Amino acid sequence: CNQNVRRSALLQHRQACSFRPVRCAHCDKAIQSKDMENHLESNCKRVPVPCPEGCGAEIPRRDMDAHREACGLEDRAGGLLVAPVPTELSEGAPPHASALPTSSGTATKPIAEEMEAEVEANAVAPALLQAQKELEARTGAAAQAMAEAEAETEAEAESKAMAETYAAAAAEAEAAVAAQA
Q1: What is the pTM of this model?
Q2: Do 54 and 64 form a contact (C-beta atoms < 8 A)?
Q3: 38, 50, 147, 181: which has the fewest C-beta neighbours closer than 10 Å?
Q4: Residue 169 lies in a domain
Q5: pLDDT tier, 134 (very low <50, low <70, confident <90, very high otherwise)
Q6: How far is residue 47 from each of residues 35, 44, 50, 143, measured CA to CA in Å?
Q7: Which residues contact residue 140 at a Cβ distance below 8 angstroms, ignoring those fewer than 6 apart?
Q8: pLDDT at position 32 over 80
Q9: How far apart are CA 97 and CA 88, in angstroms?
């Protein structure tokens, strides 16, 4: 920034200046402090955002398109969440068409076996979805913790560099005062 600040207030100004660079906790980019809110709301590709389909997962913005394809819920009719229509129904075939008798008079697959398989798959699906959500949450939390640790390390290094700069400036000032005396 172009603000004139007394040397004695410089450290405080650097810590509060809206033009100071700060690291995004999600993507680790250096962003001016004044722009961080906009960065998180609109630009950061790694910030977690809630699934717009309503499944409850929070996904990094850059991965949302892939998540929406895999999510399995579609937003229709003003917020009504609907699972995709099975292929056999969407193509006009009646459900369980594979279980109908063939020309030889035998069923290609017994209805009972097909229904049991569907029941088993439906019983496992919620547990798998919950496990996926938990894994995504843990992964996001771990990534955020790593980014915070990196930001802290960088802030410590920056503070040390500033302290060394101020110490050198103080030594120069003392030398100048001593030379004048």
Answers
A1: 0.39
A2: no
A3: 181
A4: yes
A5: confident
A6: 15, 6, 10, 11
A7: 48, 58, 60
A8: yes
A9: 8
From CA 33, how far away is CA 19, in angstroms rounded?
Answer: 6
Domain of 123 in residue numbering reads as 114-181
pLDDT exceeds 90 at position 61: yes
Domain total of the chain: 1
Would residue 124 count as lying in a domain?
yes
Whether 171 maps to a domain, the answer reads yes
State the Rg of the chain over Cα.
30
Contact 44/33 with Cβ under 8 angstroms?
A: no
Q: What is the rounded CA–CA span in Å between residue 80 and residue 90?
A: 19
Rounded Cα gap, residues 99 and 110, in angstroms: 6
Q: Which two tokens stand for residue 167?
A: 């110490």
Q: Which residues pair with 81 in a beta bridge?
A: 75
In a domain, 123, yes or no: yes
